[in-house]
């Protein structure tokens, strides 16, 4: 196993991690922005007002994007496990 192979595997793992986490981060960011604009317009400064909608939106995003996320993860793990004999030898 060469250092180049290790770097390639680590790079792929980071790409998969970013790809899988992107929908949840984008949903949380958009929800936080909308709630912040609402709080600024109404002058309501309640901490739970930003937490609860983000939690609900992340849960819904996970329900919608969850099967896709699991497919991406299992495909990566399958490719990684199938390449073990070639990496060892």
Automatic annotation (TrEMBL):
<dbReference type="InterPro" id="IPR002191">
    <property type="entry name" value="Bac_export_3"/>
</dbReference>
<keyword id="KW-0472">Membrane</keyword>
<dbReference type="GO" id="GO:0044780">
    <property type="term" value="P:bacterial-type flagellum assembly"/>
</dbReference>
<comment type="function">
    <text>Role in flagellar biosynthesis.</text>
</comment>
<feature type="transmembrane region" description="Helical">
    <location>
        <begin position="51"/>
        <end position="70"/>
    </location>
</feature>
<dbReference type="InterPro" id="IPR006305">
    <property type="entry name" value="FliQ"/>
</dbReference>
<dbReference type="GO" id="GO:0005886">
    <property type="term" value="C:plasma membrane"/>
</dbReference>
<keyword id="KW-0812">Transmembrane</keyword>
<keyword id="KW-0969">Cilium</keyword>
<keyword id="KW-0282">Flagellum</keyword>
<dbReference type="GO" id="GO:0009425">
    <property type="term" value="C:bacterial-type flagellum basal body"/>
</dbReference>
<comment type="similarity">
    <text>Belongs to the FliQ/MopD/SpaQ family.</text>
</comment>
<keyword id="KW-1003">Cell membrane</keyword>
<keyword id="KW-1133">Transmembrane helix</keyword>
<dbReference type="GO" id="GO:0009306">
    <property type="term" value="P:protein secretion"/>
</dbReference>
<feature type="transmembrane region" description="Helical">
    <location>
        <begin position="16"/>
        <end position="39"/>
    </location>
</feature>
<dbReference type="Pfam" id="PF01313">
    <property type="entry name" value="Bac_export_3"/>
</dbReference>
<protein>
    <recommendedName>
        <fullName>Flagellar biosynthetic protein FliQ</fullName>
    </recommendedName>
</protein>
<keyword id="KW-0975">Bacterial flagellum</keyword>
<keyword id="KW-0966">Cell projection</keyword>
